[in-house]
Amino acid sequence: MLLKDIYSLCIELGKKYDPRPKEEVEKYLARTQKNYAELKEEEQEYYDKERLNNPYSDTRILNGDLELDVKKILAGIDIETSEILLADRLREKGEKVDLILAHHPEGRALAGLYQVMHLQEDILAELGVPINVAEGLLSSRVSEVERGLLPLNHNRSVDAAKLLNFPFMCVHTPADNMVNTYLENLFQDKQPETVNDIITVLKELPEYKMALANGTGPKIVAGKKNRRTGKIMIDMTGGTSGSDDAYAKLSAAGVGTIVGMHMGEKHRKEAEKNHINVVIAGHMSSDSLGMNLLLDELEAKGLEVLPCSGLTRVKRK
Question: Per DSSP, what are the bridge partners of residue 254?
Fold first, then answer.
C-alpha cells in the first residue's frame, strides 16, 4: 500500500466516524477553502495547504515519499526520538520497518492541534448547547491551547526520523473519532442505567480490561457508582480538553454523565459542581482502542503492524 493511500484512508475513516453530521464536515472544509482564497499572496505562501482537503490538522505525513510502498508499520501512541531509535535497532536486527505511525501529533501536526478543537463546538451543539454559546465557550480555550503549543520543540522526533531515513506519519483525530463513535454505539446498545454500569460495560473491552490489570483502568472521578447516568456524553475526540465553562451549559442541556479519556482537576471540579458524573476510561487504553480500530482497516489492506509505545494491540477483524 502506498504511503499516500494510507494517509488518504486515514482521512476518510476520520470523516466516516466523525461525530459531526457529514454536512458539517464538508461545510468546515468549504469555510477553510474560502478563508484561504481570501488571504493575501504572501499569507498563502506559508499556509498549510493540507487543511484545504483534510479537516484534521493533527494528522499529517511528517516525513517520507508519498509513493513509498509500505508493507510493515511500527505503530505507537507517542513516537519520540527513543521510538525512532527503537525502529532503527529493529532494522539492525533484520526487522523491516517501512513506516513509523504515531497517534499523538508531532511536527506540523502538533503545531496545528488547536485547529481541530472546533470539532467540539458541533459536538456541544448536538448535545443541546446552542451553537453560538458553544463557539463562545471554545474561542478562548482554542487560543489558550494555541499559545501553549508555541514554545514546544515540535520537530524533535521529525528530525530524528529524517536523520535515520524513516517515513513518519501521525493519525490523531481520525482514530479518536473512531473510538468516540464505537463507544457511542456501544452505550446506545447496552443502555447502562447507573455510573457503575458504565464501568461494567468498559470492562468488557480488552483494552480496558488489560488497563485494569496495569492499574490504569476505568475509574469514577466525579459522582457515585449508584447514581443514574442521565444523558451520556462520550468525550474522546476534539484535539484536547475544551473549556471548563462548558459543564454548566452541558448540565442545563441534560448531560448527566461524561465518559472521557482524561480530565484535568479544574475541569473535574466544574463537572462535579454541576452534578455531572465523570468516568475516566483511561488515556492509553482509549487511544489504543481508537488506533486498533484504525489499524484493523490497514491490516485488512495487507499491512503488518508492530505495536509499541503504549499501544495495546487488539484485533477485531
Answer: none
